[in-house]
Specification:
It comes from Dreissena polymorpha (Zebra mussel). One of its GO terms (molecular function) is helicase activity. This is DNA2/NAM7 helicase helicase domain-containing protein. By secondary structure, the chain is mainly α. The chain has 2 domains: 82 residues, no CATH class; 80 residues, P-loop containing nucleotide triphosphate hydrolases (Rossmann fold), CATH 3.40.50.300. It is built from 8 helices and 2 strands, in the order αααααβαβαα. Strands 1-2 form a two-stranded parallel sheet. Helix 6 links the parallel strand 1 and strand 2. It starts with a helix and ends with a helix.
Length: 176
């Protein structure tokens, strides 16, 4: 019994020493600049047969490849952002901005930033009330609804909901 305890204590001490030495080595292994080339990586048949040094080289090359991938992706997003920022600046300077009600709902925050003083809704008799309210912002002083309330009505997708809540009557028709 005592011999088993001694063996267990010996093993625990060995494991602690191994952990300490590994903790000291790992930062050096991670920060090393020794990378595996693409050709060397392609020639690997079984990664488990690689020695520790080559595994670390492979790991660092994979990390570098992934970092380059992310860097290129970020650059692409940055270019997209520049284009959108340019369009936003141009839109702020425009006197007339035309869009569908779907687009207005999708870019509601941008419309709130632009604060258009006048909103014109064409075919207002066909548009649901929520779609008319979406482009309105604090800066809106006038809303102009154009359409014929005797022609087409809004077409909600859920019939029961439309009849129960009067969604089949447009905002335009309510106010005429």
């Amino acid at each position: 019994m005592k011999q088993e305890e001694n063996e267990l204590q010996f093993r625990l001490k060995q494991e602690q020493l191994i952990r300490k030495s590994v903790k000291k080595k790992i930062p050096n292994l991670i920060l090393s600049n020794d990378l595996m080339t693409h050709q060397e990586a392609c020639d690997i048949d079984d990664i488990w047969k690689l020695n520790l040094k080559d595994r670390w080289r492979r790991y660092r090359s994979c990390v570098q490849t992934y970092c380059l991938f992310l860097y290129h992706k970020i650059e692409q997003e940055r270019e997209g952002f520049k284009i959108i920022a340019k369009r936003y600046k141009e839109a702020k300077m425009q006197t007339v901005i035309g869009m569908t009600t779907t687009f207005a709902a999708r870019y509601r925050s941008t419309l709130r930033d632009i604060k258009p003083p006048i909103v014109i809704v064409e075919e207002a008799a066909e548009v649901l009330e929520a779609h008319i309210i979406t482009p309105l912002s604090d800066g809106c002083k006038h809303i102009i609804l154009i359409g014929d309330h005797k022609q087409l009505r809004p077409n909600p997708s859920v019939y029961k909901l439309a009849t129960r809540n009067n969604l089949n009557i447009s905002f335009f028709e309510r106010n005429v």
